[in-house]
Amino acid sequence: MGHKAGEIRVLVLGLIKEGDRTFLTQGFDSVTGETFYRAMGGGVEFGETSRAALEREFLEEINAAITNIKYLGCLESIFVHQGKKGQEIIQLYECDFVDRKFYETEQINFNEGKRAKTALWVNIQDCKERKIRVVPEEYVKYL
């Protein structure tokens, strides 16, 4: 996702959980060598609501329809990724997959632009105990 330095991005993320697990996408910082996880979602485009953007992102990325969409709140994140400072305003929603097959799939490989990405189910307790790094950190309290 191309964005200019010094720009604040508006993102939308979808929190999906089932039992003791939650659905996240895997990211990698080649500068720090660190793997991290984030809820699925993406940038809100001009003229679109964050809720519409959430539905569009799930369809674009993994061809999944979502339902039971409920607004949770707004997160602000200032961070460094790939050695560059970034800032995001995140609209966070809770939602569910329409199709049961997504709950039965351990992981899904998909493409985001030119990048190959992985989405997978992870244990919520591992997130809370920081065994895996979830960004932004504030997100964990919603799990």
Account of the protein in words:
The protein is an alpha+beta fold and 143 residues long. The chain has a single domain (8-98, 107-142), classed as Nucleoside Triphosphate Pyrophosphohydrolase (Alpha-Beta Complex). 15% of the residues lie in helices and 52% in strands. It has three helices and eight strands, in the order ββββαββαββα. Strands 1, 2, 3, 4, 5, 6, 7 and 8 form an eight-stranded mixed beta sheet that branches. β7 and β8 form a beta hairpin. It starts with 7 loop residues before the first strand and ends in a 15-residue tail after the last helix. The relative contact order is 0.26. The model has no long low-confidence stretch (mean pLDDT 95).
CATH topology: Nucleoside Triphosphate Pyrophosphohydrolase
Mean pLDDT score, rounded? 95
List the uncertain runs. none
CATH superfamily: Nucleoside Triphosphate Pyrophosphohydrolase
Largest sheet properties: 8 strands, mixed
Look at the helices and sheets and give the structural class.
Answer: alpha+beta
> Beta-strand level of the residues, as a percent range?
over 45%
Individual helix count: 3
The helix content, as a percent range, equals 10-25%
Task: Please write the CATH class name.
Answer: Alpha Beta
> What would you call the shape?
globular
Radius of gyration: 14 Å
Tally of domains: 1
Question: Using DSSP, what is the number of strands?
Answer: 8
Protein name: NUDIX domain-containing protein
Organism: Gomphosphaeria aponina SAG 52.96 = DSM 107014
Pfam families: NUDIX
InterPro entries: NUDIX_hydrolase-like_dom_sf (IPR015797), NUDIX_hydrolase_CS (IPR020084), NUDIX_hydrolase_dom (IPR000086)
